[in-house]
Design a protein that fits this description.
Blueprint lengths: L1 H7 L2 H5 L4 E8 L6 E7 L2 H9 L4 H8 L18
Length: 81
C-alpha cells in the first residue's frame, strides 16, 4: 500500500505548489495504514491547495488507495534532538 501511495503522490507537483513546506509518509508497522503528514506555510495555502484544480487529481489518486480525511492542524509543540 505504501508503494502505491508514494507513486500516487507526485513530489514534483507538490514542491512547486505555493505554500508547500514538506511531506512525510508514515506507515503502520502492520502495513495496514498510511499517514501523510504534510506541512503548509499557512492555513490559507492549505485551503487553496484543496481547491486547486491541478491538485485535485493528485488527491483523488491518493484517495483511491485508502480512506482520505485531510484536516488542518496547528503545531502545539515540536520536540527535536
Amino acid at each position: 500500500m505504501v508503494a502505491g501511495f508514494q507513486v500516487s503522490i507526485d513530489g514534483r507537483f507538490w514542491v512547486s505548489t505555493e505554500g508547500f513546506v514538506s511531506a512525510s509518509i508514515h506507515k503502520s508497522v502492520d502495513n495496514t495504514r498510511v499517514v501523510n503528514y504534510a506541512q503548509w506555510r499557512t492555513k490559507d495555502d492549505f485551503d487553496a491547495m484543496r481547491t486547486n484544480p491541478e491538485a485535485i487529481p493528485h488527491m483523488k489518486a491518493a484517495a483511491a488507495l485508502a480512506s482520505f480525511d485531510p484536516i488542518a492542524c496547528e503545531v502545539a509543540e515540536s520536540i527535536a534532538r
